[in-house]
From TrEMBL:
Subcellular location: Cell membrane
UniProt topology in membrane: Multi-pass membrane protein
Keywords annotated in UniProt: Cell membrane, Membrane, Transmembrane, Transmembrane helix
Coiled coil region boundaries: none
InterPro entries: GspF/PilC, T2SS_GspF_dom, T2SS_GspF_sf
A GO CC term attached to the entry: plasma membrane
Homology family: Belongs to the GSP F family.
Top-level division of the source organism's lineage: Bacteria
Domain Type II secretion system protein GspF: 14-134, 212-330
Keyword Cell membrane recorded: yes
Species this protein is from: Stieleria maiorica
Main location: membrane
Protein name, UniProt field: Type II secretion system protein F
Regions that span the bilayer: 113-138, 158-180, 309-330
Length: 347
C-alpha cells in the first residue's frame, strides 16, 4: 500500500502526545492504541501497524521503519537513538519542538500572503462577472456588447474558457514545483543559480541552512555520530542537491580526519560565512551544544528570511493585480474612445 508522507503538523502532534504521555509514565502500548484514533486514515493505519508490531515484540523504531514511506526519516532515526539511550520521552518532545517550528514558519508565510491572494481571487472574480455580463446583456442598438476586455469571451461559456486558461497556468506552475521536488532531470542541480537571485536566493538558502542546523543539533544531541547526523541533516533539506554531499562528508571524516566544519567544506554545498560559524561553534564547546546555539541563531534568521519571501510573493501578486487593472483600464478606455471617434466620423 502506498503512503503519503506524514505532514509536519501531524508529526508535531504525534510526537507531542507521545512525549507528554511517556514523561507522565504512561505505557507505550496504551499511548499507541490511543494514537490509532488520531489523524488521517493513512496515519491511523500506519500507527495501527506500529502498535501491532510493538505488541509482537518489535521496537517502535523498527515498526516505524516498516512504514518508512509514511513516518519522517528524522523521526525514525531519532526514535531509535532515544530507545537505545533510554530517553525516548525526551526525544519525542524534542522532535515535537522541531516540527512545531516548521509549522510556525509555514504559517508565517501563508499568513503574510493571504490578503494578496484574496485580492487576486477577487480580481479574477470581477473579470469573470464582466465576461458573463457581456454575454447576457445587449446594447440598445442590438447585436452584442463591445468586447471591452479584448479576450473575445462572452457569457457562461466564456467564463469557463477563462477559468480553463487560469487552470492551465496553475497546472504549469504546479508541474514546475513537482519537477523540482522530484528532481526530474536533475533540476535541483540549478540550486546554486537560484541562490544568486537577489532577495529570493539568500532567503531560500537561509531557510535550508536553518533546517540543516536544527536537524544536526537534534541528531548530535540524541547521540548519533557526526557522519550519520550530517547525512540525516542533509536529507532533511528535501533536496537531492544537498543529499549528494553525504558521501563526500563521510570520506572527508574517515579518510582525512577532518573536523565537522572541514567535512562540510569538502562538500562545496555551504557558504563560507556559515562554515566560519560552524568552526567558531566547534571551538566554543561540545559539538551538540555548539551546534544547538547555531541552530537557534539560524532559526531567527529563517524567520526573517520567511518574511522576505512572503514580501517577494506579496509584491509579485500585487504587481499582477495592478498590471491586470491597468491593462483593463486602458483597454476599456480605448474601446470607449474608439466608439467616440467612430461616432464623430459618421457625423
Amino acid at each position: 500500500m502506498l503512503f503519503r508522507r506524514m505532514g509536519i503538523a501531524a508529526a508535531a502532534g504525534f510526537c507531542r502526545r507521545m512525549g507528554i504521555g511517556l514523561r507522565a509514565g504512561a505505557d507505550l502500548l496504551r499511548l499507541l492504541k490511543a494514537e490509532t484514533k488520531y489523524g488521517s486514515p493513512r496515519q491511523r493505519e500506519a500507527v495501527s501497524h506500529v502498535l501491532e508490531s510493538v505488541e509482537a515484540g518489535f521496537q517502535i523504531s523498527d515498526a516505524m521503519k516498516q512504514r518508512a514511506a509514511f513516518f519522517p526519516r528524522l523521526m525514525v532515526s531519532l526514535t531509535r537513538v532515544g530507545e537505545s539511550t533510554g530517553k525516548l520521552e525526551r526525544t519525542f518532545n524534542t522532535l515535537a519542538d522541531h516540527f512545531d517550528q516548521q509549522v510556525a514558519l509555514r504559517r508565517l508565510f501563508l499568513t503574510s500572503i493571504a490578503w494578496p491572494v484574496i485580492q487576486l481571487g477577487l480580481g479574477l472574480g470581477v473579470i469573470s462577472i464582466v465576461i458573463y455580463l457581456m454575454g447576457i446583456l445587449t446594447p440598445s442598438t442590438g447585436g452584442q456588447m463591445a468586447d471591452i476586455l479584448g479576450f473575445g469571451l462572452r457569457g457562461g461559456k466564456g467564463v469557463l474558457i477563462f477559468w480553463g486558461y487560469i487552470a492551465c497556468v496553475a497546472a504549469i506552475l504546479w508541474s514546475l514545483y513537482f519537477a523540482y521536488q522530484k528532481n526530474l532531470g536533475g533540476v535541483q542541480n540549478l540550486v546554486p543559480l537560484l541562490y544568486m537571485v537577489p532577495k529570493l536566493g539568500p532567503s531560500l538558502q537561509t531557510i535550508t541552512l536553518s533546517r540543516f542546523t536544527r536537524t544536526l543539533s537534534l541528531a548530535l544531541g540524541a547521540g548519533l555520530d557526526p557522519i550519520r547526523s550530517v547525512k540525516l541533516s542533509l536529507d532533511s533539506t528535501d533536496s537531492d542537491y544537498y543529499r549528494g554531499g553525504g558521501e563526500l562528508f563521510e570520506s572527508a571524516i574517515r579518510d582525512r580526519g577532518d573536523t565537522l566544519a572541514g567535512g562540510l567544506r569538502s562538500t562545496d554545498l555551504f557558504p563560507e560565512p556559515f562554515l566560519h560559524l560552524v568552526e567558531v561553534a566547534e571551538m566554543s564547546g561540545t559539538e551538540s551544544e555548539s551546534i544547538d546555539h547555531l541552530a537557534v541563531e539560524y532559526e531567527e534568521r529563517a524567520k526573517m528570511a520567511m518574511r522576505t519571501l512572503s514580501g517577494v510573493a506579496t509584491g509579485i501578486i500585487w504587481m499582477a493585480v495592478a498590471g491586470t487593472l491597468i491593462f483593463f483600464i486602458f483597454r476599456m478606455a480605448s474601446v470607449y474612445l474608439g466608439a467616440i471617434n467612430e461616432a464623430a466620423g459618421l457625423n
